Automatic annotation (TrEMBL):
PANTHER family: DIGALACTOSYLDIACYLGLYCEROL SYNTHASE 2, CHLOROPLASTIC
GO BP: galactolipid biosynthetic process
Catalytic activity: a 1,2-diacyl-3-O-(beta-D-galactosyl)-sn-glycerol + UDP-alpha-D-galactose = a 1,2-diacyl-3-O-[alpha-D-galactosyl-(1->6)-beta-D-galactosyl]-sn-glycerol + UDP + H(+)
Subcellular localization(s) per the UniProt record: Plastid, Chloroplast outer membrane
Main location per the UniProt record: plastid
Assigned keywords, A-Z: Chloroplast, Glycosyltransferase, Membrane, Plastid, Plastid outer membrane, Signal, Transferase
Alphabetical list of SUPFAM superfamilies matching this protein: UDP-Glycosyltransferase/glycogen phosphorylase (SSF53756)
Similarity comment: family membership: Belongs to the glycosyltransferase group 1 family. Glycosyltransferase 4 subfamily.
Organism, as annotated: Carex littledalei
Protein's name according to its UniProt entry: Digalactosyldiacylglycerol synthase 2, chloroplastic
Enzyme Commission number, as recorded: 2.4.1.241
């Protein structure tokens, strides 16, 4: 076995200042893979032109050139980790789909990485990145392609008109593209759809700032007594759209107002459904206040004792992990997306509305269990990086000199492998052909004219404009 310096190319579907999981978690993954200095890491993020920046980035933040956005991303990371890891950031052209509320790639993303260094590709949201991929096959370009499934797309689609039919189609398309483009798939939790060659493992950690907040709250308890650290009651923070837990939360509060008499709770968030959420909360007899969204690390959240998150559309909820890291009690549904959190004593899971009421009252009258060093480590990005390396098989890159089975068995396995490989290549060729037809792309939801970057994006990214 020979050891070589590995190169990780991490492709993701969003970037700061859009505060979404697929912008933040791949950034931390890149930083912690590069932290020790024994790996080369490139983070590839989408570049949006002005028109789309207006639709996506908050507080009217805009970037004239990619280098401005890179400076913003690096500064944000350094403020939260106090380290300056040596990884590269590069951009691919993207366009924002209002219908999907997502950034979709433009052109062939595999061209971003030079052939000479193409080694390991990490596709954060592999289905999203390959739905409309037209170009070189990922498995041909890279030695190993790891897909990390972040989003429960089927749960979101089912909430739309004709949702179950759409989910049926999407499920098979996801399975198809992920199978032909990924060698290995990591599902963050069992809340995602089942996929070929996949394992379930939470390979995300929390921003180290939240672990520091948790340590500070523990010191406050040691100095001022058990009740000194958490002086406020319950809250929830999340993007203010119905699909992000607000439907479940307001339904639970509405159905159990009598049992929860006296409950005081604040909801923090911004989003398309803010006005409707405020209206629904105002109808409750409980003291529920709706407030604008803030950074979860803001001091205003430090004194809350109980984080209530009934969402069942998340895969692994970042804010739940952050609340646990800060030493709070978390109340969440007994759902596959919360399986990782059950190992922590401050995680209370419920199955019914009555259990929700019981656990909420218990949490408000109890004090959180102090986190041990082992618990903190489990929540950290150091542990998440170890889990990623193990789940992807990159910590045991062993090459056997000869088969370990009999000649006949080996021959059968070889023939089966070659047959599967041939079918897979044919399937990939078919996908590449269809994804190159503009009418077919648009019929399946692609943004028109995204086979190649337009003149404006080519100029902004310094790309050679290709004429079709």
């Amino acid at each position: 076995m020979t050891t070589r310096r590995r190169h990780f190319a991490i492709f993701t579907t969003a970037s700061l200042p859009w505060m979404t999981g697929t912008a933040i978690n791949p950034l931390f993954r890149a930083a912690y893979l590069a932290k020790d200095g024994d790996r080369d890491v490139t983070l590839i993020i989408p570049w949006l032109s002005f028109k789309d920046q207006d639709l996506v980035y908050p507080n009217k933040i805009k970037f004239n050139v990619p280098s401005e956005q890179e400076d913003y991303v690096r500064k944000w990371l350094q403020e939260r980790t106090a380290m300056v890891p040596s990884f590269t950031i590069t951009f691919y052209p993207g366009k924002f789909s209002k219908e999907k509320r997502s950034i979709l790639p433009v052109g062939d993303l595999t061209e971003i990485i030079e052939d000479e260094v193409a080694d390991i590709a990490v596709l954060e949201e592999p289905e999203h990145l390959t739905w409309y991929h037209h170009g070189r096959r990922w498995k041909t370009k890279f030695r190993k392609v790891i897909g990390i499934v972040h989003t429960n797309y089927l749960a979101y689609v089912k909430r739309e008109k004709n949702g179950f039919m759409q989910a049926f189609v999407l499920k098979h398309i996801n399975s198809w593209v992920v199978d032909i483009y990924c060698h290995k798939v990591i599902r963050l939790s069992a809340a995602t759809q089942e996929l070929e060659r996949s394992v379930i493992c939470n390979v995300h950690g929390v921003n180290p700032r939240f672990l520091e907040i948790g340590k500070q709250k523990l010191k406050e308890r040691e100095i001022g007594g058990e009740k000194a650290a958490f002086l406020k009651g319950a809250y929830y923070i999340g993007k203010m759209v119905w699909g992000k837990g607000y439907t479940e939360l307001l339904q639970l509060l509405g159905e159990h107002q009598t049992e929860l008499t006296g409950l005081k709770m604040e909801l923090y968030g911004n989003g398309e459904d803010s006005d409707e959420v405020k209206e629904a909360a105002a109808k409750l007899k409980l003291d529920v206040t709706v407030l604008p969204g803030r950074d979860h690390a803001d001091p205003i959240f430090h004194d809350y004792k109980v984080f209530i998150n009934p969402s069942t559309t998340d895969v692994v909820c970042t804010t739940t992990a952050e609340a646990l890291a800060m030493g709070k009690i978390v109340i969440c549904a007994n759902h596959p997306s919360n399986e990782f959190f059950k190992q922590f004593p401050n995680c209370y899971t419920y199955n019914t509305g009555l259990e929700f009421v019981k656990l909420t009252l218990k949490a408000l009258s109890s004090e959180p269990v102090p986190l041990t060093e082992q618990m903190r480590h489990q929540l950290s990005w150091e542990a998440a990086t170890q889990r990623f390396m193990h789940a992807s098989g990159l910590d045991q890159d062993v090459i056997y000199e000869k088969p370990l089975s009999s000649a006949a068995t080996w021959r059968f396995m070889y023939v089966a492998h070659e047959w599967r490989k041939t079918l897979e290549e044919a399937s990939a060729t078919f996908h590449n052909t269809v994804s190159g037809i503009e009418a077919a792309r648009c019929a399946f939801g692609a943004i028109p004219n995204t086979l190649q970057p337009d003149e404006q994006q080519s100029k902004e990214l310094g790309l050679k404009l290709q004429r079709l």
